[in-house]
Specification:
179 residues, mainly alpha, Arc Repressor Mutant, subunit A, 2 domains, three-stranded antiparallel beta sheet, two-stranded antiparallel sheet, 7 strands, DUF2087 domain-containing protein, DUF2087
């Protein structure tokens, strides 16, 4: 597991959860497959959804525009992710002690520890200005813990996630954990 203080979207430690969520989406998986097999995904039927999915892969950092404007795999992200995972594997201090690999195996009893773990989970599953539907949020949280409702509730209770008044979506809260 990578350094739990890194922010997803800007670090390999946080990117992997978004890669996994992208791979769960059949349309995004197909686009990635086209790029990996040397096909140009933009040559097929263009559409807003296809453009949005390509933009999402680019935002995650797994795909980028290569020379000539073609899409290519970002090998550096893969290398950085593996290096970060290897470096953190032996670290069992801080909030790492609550995780086994990617799984949150124990919810901390101490409120300060719980807030740190929840802040890490929030940072791993949602970017700063991103807004997620509940099923999208659950998909990302499930990588860490099977009880997504419990984790979601903690995130909202701690002010780390804000839930829309109609319950349709979630976005990041402003609360920062104490150092």
């Amino acid at each position: 597991m990578a350094d739990h203080n890194e922010t997803p979207g800007t670090s390999p430690a946080g990117a992997w959860i978004q890669v996994a969520a992208g791979l769960k989406n059949p349309a995004m998986r197909k686009l990635l497959g086209q790029v990996l097999t040397g096909q140009d995904p933009e040559q097929e039927a263009a559409g807003a959804r296809r453009a949005k999915d390509l933009a999402r892969w680019e935002q995650i950092g797994l795909l980028r525009r290569g020379t000539g404007g073609t899409w290519e795999l970002n090998e550096q992200l893969l290398a950085d992710t593996l290096a970060a995972a290897g470096a953190a594997k032996a670290d069992r201090s801080g909030i790492n002690r609550f995780f086994t690999g990617t799984k949150l195996h124990t919810l901390p009893a101490k409120p300060a520890d719980r807030l740190q773990v929840m802040a890490y989970l929030r940072d791993a599953v949602i970017d700063g200005d991103e807004q997620l539907r509940e099923e999208q949020l659950n998909e990302r949280l499930r990588v860490f813990h099977p009880d997504t409702a419990l984790i979601r509730r903690y995130l909202v209770d701690h002010g780390l996630l804000l839930r829309a008044a109609d319950g349709s979506s979630y976005r990041r809260g402003d609360r920062l954990p104490e150092a």
